[in-house]
User: Fold this.
Amino acid sequence: MRVVLLGPPGAGKGTQAAAMRERYRTPHVSTGDMLRTAIAAGTPLGRTARALVDAGQLVPDDMMAGLVRDRLQESDAAGGFILDGFPRTVEQAEILGRLLDSMGRELDHVLLLGLEDAEVVRRLSGRRSCASCGAPYHVIAAPSRVEGRCDRCAPPGGTLVQRPDDREDVVAERLRVYHERTAPLADHYRRRGLLREVDASGSVEDVERRILVTLAGPAGAAKAAPRRAGGDRA
Ligand code: ADP
Ligand code: AMP
Assistant:
């Protein structure tokens, strides 16, 4: 299963990808997580990306292309991936299409998690994540059992932190960038017959059920059937 998760920041891509990773035993490839790791490690890429990420701007397409190419060529992604946060521009979608072509692979689905801006702001203002394992939490919708501590790490649990780019002014800029640069990808993938739209409002479990139904639906089932040689590429 090769899936792209599209949607505004805070729509629940990382949350749903974590559930899908377990269900489909497929790696979750988050370009945001990869950049945050590079920033924390102080790599050359991380040093260039830091100011852009903190300001809610996109990292240049050519830098992202190299990062994603290397990751998708790792052996655990050979059987599939859940791509979260890439592509974010039409140019990146074209880069991904060419990369998959060159690997003789194709996308099965592009899931667009739709959520209105006011709910995005509510979700991002309460988002916390574990500083050690990255697990997502929300102070109201998905709190940890012990305040400020991760349930999934060994006791006493990693510390829960707020991302610097979840500050109100940066969230506004990320939403602006999403509508201008990323939202046009819906049409790009709709034209290729790959887009599946999912309402991302409601509880985490509601959204999980909708995704399951969407992936099992007629379009999903058709895509999951054995492929003929020379089938169309994403
Ligand atoms: P994204 O990866 O799309 O930026 P996240 O998965 O990090 O979004 O979710 C953003 C925030 O919203 C997190 O705090 C997460 O716990 C919370 N969240 C995710 N899905 C839901 C949901 N269906 N209802 C309420 N809160 C949610
Ligand atoms: P995310 O964790 O997906 O919300 O991404 C956090 C930040 O990382 C974004 O606001 C961008 O600054 C940067 N980023 C992540 N993925 C990409 C991408 N595909 N292209 C450009 N910048 C990205």
Q: What stands out?
A: The pocket of adenosine-5'-diphosphate (ligand 1) is lined by residues 7, 9-15, 123, 126-127, 136-138, 141-142, 202-204, 207 (CB under 6 Å). Confidence is low (pLDDT under 50) at residues 220-234. The radius of gyration is 17 Å. Residues 4 and 83 are 5 Å apart (CA to CA).
